[in-house]
Structure formats: C-alpha cells, structure tokens
Amino acid sequence: MLLANLALRFIVELVGVGSLAYVAYQAPLDGVARVAVTVAAPLAFIVVWAVVVAPKATNGFSQRQRDAIGTGLLVLVAVALGLAGQMAAAAVFGAIVVVNWALGFVFGQDASGAIGSAGGRSR
C-alpha cells in the first residue's frame, strides 16, 4: 500500500507541474511573455521541489517536513487552478493531494526507505 501511495504521489507531482504550466498559460500576457511564463513557472516549481522536497535533497528538513512542504506547494497549485477558473479540477486535485498526504502520514511514508526495501524483496 505504501508503494501505491508513493506512486500516486509521483503522479500527483507530475499533474501539479502540468497544471502549473496551464495556469501560467492562462495569465493575461501575449506573445513571448506568455511563453516565457508558461515555461518558467513549472521549471521554477521543479527546481524548488528538487532542492527542498525531493527525498535525496541535501537540506536540514526531515522527510515529514519535506512531505508537508510538498503538500503545501501542491495545494497552492490547486488554488492557482481555481483562480484560473478550473474550480472542479482544483477541488479534485486538492482533495487527492490532501488524501495522499494523509495516507503517507499514516503509513509513515519514507520514499527512499520504501523503495529500497521493495527492491530488496524482489531479489
């Protein structure tokens, strides 16, 4: 169940990046500015995620803190979707993010430990 929740988290992260690109594209800009914002917003999200949230990021945060920060970022993406006029998508995405985080909290989600132990069992 833990690996299924981690797989769902990965899918949610990818949907979050795509949703952020959609929201950025909806900004009231034209031409090169629209393209720049559409590319820059998801790239900035990915960089922040890699530096702060990723399981192998070298910072002072515990895995639980990283999960909470990542969930907060994804909830902000859901809010941005709502502000872009996609209320149903925002509600569904936000609900999935929160349920995924809660399940990870219940299971004691640790991505590196779970993936390492699953790899050990398959041998």
Q: Counting H and I runs of at least 4 residues, what is the number of helices?
A: 5
Distance between the termini: 20 Å
> What sequence of helices (H) and strands (E) makes up the elements?
HHHHH
* Structural class label: mainly alpha
Helical content (DSSP H or I, runs of 4+):
over 70%
β-strand amount: under 5%
Tell me how many strands there are. 0
Overall morphology = globular
Mean pLDDT: 87
Largest sheet: none
Low-confidence stretches: none
Domain count? 1
Question: What can you tell me about this protein's structure?
Answer:
It is globular and about 45 Å long. The model has no long low-confidence stretch (mean pLDDT 87). By secondary structure, the chain is an all-alpha fold. The chain has one domain. The longest helix has 24 residues, at 2-25. The protein has helices spanning 2-25, 31-53, 63-83, 87-107, 111-121. It has 5 helices and no strands. Helix 1 runs antiparallel to helix 4. 81% of the residues lie in helices and 0% in strands.
